[in-house]
Every structure is written in structure tokens, then in C-alpha cells.
Amino acid sequence: MAKIKHNNFIDTVDEVIAGAKKEGVLHLYAEDQILNGRTLQIKGKKMFHFGTTGYLGLEQDNRLKEAAITAIQKYGTQFPLSKTYISNPLYSELESKIEAMYGIPPIITKNSTLGHLAVIPTVVRDEDGVILDHQVHWSVQNACQLLKIRGIPVEMIRHNNLNMLEDKIKYLATRCKKIWYMADGVYSMFGDFAPIPDLMELCKKYPQLQLYFDDVHGMSWRGKNGTGYVLDVLKSLPDNVLLFGTLSKTFGASGATLLCTDNRLREKIKNFGGPLTFSAQLEPASVAAAIASANIHLSPEIISLQCDLSEKIEYFKSLLEKTTLPMIALNNSPVFFLGTAMPLTAYKMVQRLFKEGFYVNPAIYPAVPIKNTGIRITLSRHNQKEEIKALVEAMEYHFPIALEESGNSQHKVNKAFGIVETISTVGNLEPKKNLVLQYEVSIEKINKQNWNELLGKQSTFDWDGLCFLENAFINPNYPENNWDFHYYIIKDKKGIPVLATFFTYGLWKDDMLASESISKQLEEKRKQNPLYLTSKVLGMGSLFTEGNHCYINKTHPLAEEAIMLLLEQVETLYHQLNADMLVLRDFEEDEQLNHIFHNQGFLKINMPETCIIQNAIWNTIEEYSTSLSHRSRKHFLKEVLPLEQAFDIVIKNQLTNEELEQAYKLYLNVKNINHAINTFTYPIEVFQKMESNPQWEFILLYLKNKEKEQSVNPLIGILFCYKNTAHTYVPALIGMDYSYAKEFQLYRQLLFQGIKRARELNLNKIDFGVSATFEKRKLGATIIPKVAYIQARDNFSMELMGTLQNEDKTL
């Protein structure tokens, strides 16, 4: 079967960033003739700068500027030679200054991203393993991609989850010599910290454990000599800890620095650490600026600078604590995060703060989960108390307005971030006065004719099909096939339907649409834990169905209002069920829906294409073949039609117990080999319930036994087919004996028999579902691209699956 085209992560990110850019909150340009650190001018508007990562403001210190100017005048703009050969005249002094700060000889790198690429593949040996905090900086995760090529296991844990970390350590302990845990000291979005004391206790318990910290956001504003948050907690660097600091951001210059106590390892990194060998070295101006900054860090002045910033942090916190603003991880770092949950709220809030004269950073996917969108606010010594106070007042005033403008509420924000509400902040939105909502948990509560007029003629979700699904997927003994159903019909006051849809709640495999290689690896792990990496999902439609699960009367003047009402209702249900993911599927590309769903906190992803045959009206096989393209017709006449004679073809409404057992084995053959759409295996009870439903029938292919060696012709293929409202034929599932598949073109033959049967029944549409689009197109199917919109509580599963590419060692 042809491989399914899976969603491209880059396309998803591109669309999110493009949306934020369109709202005027990203990809901006500062217009200042002179920068002072306190203000920025953007589009002619002067704003107070609350978006810097230069927390101590050293990038504007005259001593650093003068040192850089002098270095350019003396040594030029760069020293264009690999540092492996020779370093520029200032490097030796910088290294001695950094050694004086830390008490350890450093390795200086061009920046932290290149530094990780130099260090991680060198220090992590083939016999080692790696565990990543799923919020560790992208540069660390990216460097670990090189490890997977070598077969080194790269695992991932949820953010700061020490129980999960210990489980992963135990898992790797018998197969790895060293186990590296990689984390940030201070996390760049929420400003929270790594649990360093607890990690050191784990190191005592598991001597294999090595710690690798990226502390670039903890530098300078914290610790003795400004050596950062991690070293401030540890006091001295243990032998099993590698520490990355920065010479940029708060340090005020450029570059990064690695500290480790192992002299031999340090020399090995310097001798061949990828970018250290093959990339350019720091420019003389940057080295000189870093020397000037190091002099400040080695003087008593650093303490007064740290205290000045700390005082402003505490002042900002004291003002925020008097508000009801949903601030996340309110601690003593200079990084603050205002939760908005929905991107549209963040855009509105940023726009309002811009107009008030405050520059802040929107925090959007993939830096944070799409439903954990917010605004990152950073403090520096440049900020004065009067503008800090004014910012809080502006935030407090504009936040409720931004919520209202975007159809949001603080209750929703609190839910999205798991904030416990001490007082009621529900503040429900105004009821939709022009709309009437019908919500049911069984299709039997909904008028059959009305439902079929809106959503009939598609897949297996006409009224009768949903009766079957409700009956078939009540499986308490199989939690993965035990679903709840939720139906929504929204009408105007005159009773005219505006929107209708249904959702199911159940377990999904997180890799359902991942690449086959990832699914194969996860299926190995599921042999021990069948529910490994699965999520509770509230999803439009069901895993059994495909097609347009949502009727929207787009010409109705209340269409958008009805969509917003649906989203409000399903989000409430999503939180009531404590689901992990909310999925809206399967839509054709629509710019208006893209805009609505993105602004409400959904990511658009590409779904597998669906295949249909429409208006299949022909009277003879010859007429059918002439409806195909020239190339497909040639293929059909040569490889499909002649082989039909090899089979006895039987169509039945019911199967004997023996036939059902054989049919189920054939279904399992296909299910077990096909990971392109990785869903759970349906239990045999689902197939037994097909037999008792008059809408189902079975097309069985028996291979004729020419030599008469067997008394009974073997069953080698079957289609499980649903008849939808005297209109649509749905070959929903397939079963095959692969030992005959190639010789007899079995898959194509089954598709053809489904086409023939639909014509016999005078059903003019065939829903062929997803996958194998190449084969279905050859037999006349039209291919329709589809998209879905998703919300997840965090990015963990997606990032974890990213660690599985090319991983073989742990399996």
C-alpha cells in the first residue's frame, strides 16, 4: 500500500508564526537611531522595553562598548581562522577571566547552540543514554538528534517530573554506562527552575546519572561572580555535572562557555568538538566586550547590580500579587509569564500594551503548547519603578478587555494552566440569544430524518451507523475501544439548523499520524504496556469514521456565532472529562475556519487524504474502464480484470462462526502490518455486532483451487462494507492473506469488487476512506485533502516522538 503523507511540523509552525506576524506582534523592527536598553521604537511608537534577555543591562555598559571599539581598531572586525589553529590575541585573557570566575578552565564557544553541537556528541559515548526534560532548550534537543544516528537512546520526561525521571533511569540502567539528564537551569518561557537539590539526591542513588545544564537564562543576575543559578545552588561544580553558561544575554557580549571538572574530557572536546574545529571563532570585539564584562563579574560591583535587579523583581512581584492576573510560576527570576490560553487573546493583549507604550513578547507555539499561549515579560535593570508600576496597571486594565474581545474568560485561562481558583472567576460569556443548542449523549435522542439530512450519506455516521457505533464501542473490558458519544445540533430561533456534529471521547495512540518508523518502535514498547503513549481524546467524529463530521450552514448569518458556541461547549466538556487532547476533524481547507480555530487556540495539521468515487453510474465493465484515465485503464485491463476469474466471490449479510473467525484473522493481518494510521485493533465483538446490523454486508474472496488439492477453497480476502441511506457504499475495513496478495493483486481486486457491488446496489457514491490513495486513484477515486485542528495540554508526546527517529538501541 502507498505510504501516507504525514503532517509537516515545519508547515504547522510556519502557519502559527505567519498568523502572529499578520497580527503585528512578531517579526518587528526596532527603528531607534540609538538604543538605550530602556525603550524601543516600533512603527513610530516609543515603548518601554519589557522583552530583553539582557537582565543586568550590561549590553549598554560603556566599558563593554569601548572595549569592543578598541578591539576592532586594533585587531579588525574578525579573526578569520579556526580556533583549532590559532586564537585571536584576546582569547587567552578571556579564558583566564572566565576561569577566575568559576575556578575551572572554560571552553569558549561561538554561541550556546553551536556549543551544544560541539559538546553533546563528544561527551555522550555510544554506550551511554540520554534523558531530556521536555522543556529543555531547543538547542539541546537539536544536538541530541546527532546521537540518535549513532543508536544512542534518547528518552524524554515531562517537565520537572522526577518520578518519571527515576523510571527512565531504571529503564536505561542495565543497558547504558552513563545516563545523561539534560535540563535548563532557568526555563526561558515561564522563568521556573530545575529542581537541582532533588536531582543531586538522585545522583547519589544512581551513580550512573550525569547532569547537563543549560543555564544561559540563569547567568549573571544570580550567583557568586554572576556564575548563574545552577552554581549558586550547587556552590561548586561536581564531577558528574556539565554546565553551559553564556557570554551573551545578561553577560552583555557574545559567545557561550562550557564548564566541566574533567581535564581530559575538556581537552577531548577542544580537540574535536565539531563546531569548535570547523566554525569561525568569536570576533575580537565580542571577546573584548566579554573581558570587560568578566572584569565587572569579578568585582564587588556585580553584587550591587544583582541587588538592583532583584529589588525590581520583588517590586514587580508585589504589584502582581495584588491583582487577579493569571501569572505563571511567579518566583524570583526576571522572567514572568501572563497566561492567555488562546492566541487571539495574546495578540489582543500585546496590541493593547503596544498602544500603551509597553513592548512585551508573545509566547506562542512551539515555544509553548498552543493552549498555553501567553505573554512573556522580562525585567532588566533598565526598567524603572514608575514604568513597572504603569505596566501592571495597564495589564490589569486591558486584560479583561482582551479576554472579552477574543471570546475568552479568566476561568478558561485558569483551566488551561491548571490554576486553582480561590474566588469565582467563571464569568460566563453572554448566552447566545439567537441560537438554540441541543446536546445529547445518544443518537437515539435525535430525530433520524433531521440528522440524515444534515450528516447522512457519509461514511458510517448516518443515524443507523451511529446506532451501530454506540452499540459496538461499549467495551468496558477494552478501554481503548470504549467510547462516549456527544452530539451537538445548533439551530436559529426559527429552527433552521446552523451546525451539527458529534464527538467521541476515548483513548488514541499519540503516534496515530506519526511516521511508520516511529509507530513500529512504539508498538514494541506496547508489547509490555499496551497503553504506552496514549491520550484521552475528545475528538470530532470517531476513529472508525472519516468524512465531513461537521455540518455548517456557511451561508447563514449566524454561522460563525454557532461555531463559537460549539467551541465553548466542547471546551467545557473537554475540561470536565479531563481529556488530554481536543481534536476537530476532518475539514477541507478553509481560510475562515483556519482563522477562527487558530485564534481560539487550535493547531492546524494535515490529515491523510480521503478517497471517494462520486456519481459512479455505468452499466458495463467496459463503460467503467473507459471512465478511467488512459494509464489507469491500461492497468485495470491488465492487472485487475483478468485476475477476477481466479476467485469465487461471495456477498453475505451474515457469516458463520468459522467464516467470522477466518475474516477476523484476515483483518488482523492487515492491521498488524499497517502502521501508517496507527489505531487500536478492534476486538472481534465489533465484527460480531456487524452481523446483527442490516446495514452491513461482507464481500468474500475465495481463491479457486485449480488442482483440487483442497476440498474447500481458501478465504483470502474480505471487505467489511456499510450501506449508508440508500446512497453511499462504505468499504470500511479490509482483510487479506498476504501470501496471495502480490500474485493475485488482492488489494486491488477487493477494491474493484467493492466498486462493482456499489453499482449493483445502485449506490452512486463510494467512501473509500484514507490510505493507499495511489491504488484507489487508479480505480477512479478522487483524492480530497483534509485538515484537522488540535489542542493538547502540553507538547510532551510530540517532542517525545521526535526523540524516536532512528532509535534502535533501546528496543
UniProtKB/TrEMBL annotation:
Coiled coil, from the record: none
MF annotations from Gene Ontology: pyridoxal phosphate binding; transferase activity
Keyword rRNA-binding in record: no
Xref: Gene3D superfamilies: Aspartate Aminotransferase, domain 1, Type I PLP-dependent aspartate aminotransferase-like (Major domain)
Domain of life: Bacteria
SUPFAM superfamilies reported in the protein's UniProt record: Acyl-CoA N-acyltransferases (Nat), PLP-dependent transferases
Keyword annotations of the record: Transferase
InterPro entries: Acyl_CoA_acyltransferase, Aminotransferase_I/II_large, AON_synthase_class-II, PyrdxlP-dep_Trfase, PyrdxlP-dep_Trfase_major, PyrdxlP-dep_Trfase_small
Organism: Flavobacterium omnivorum
Segments forming domain Aminotransferase class I/classII large: 46-394
Obligatory cofactor(s): pyridoxal 5'-phosphate
Name this polypeptide is given: 7-keto-8-aminopelargonate synthetase
A Pfam family of this chain: Aminotran_1_2
Protein's UniProt keywords contain Transferase: yes
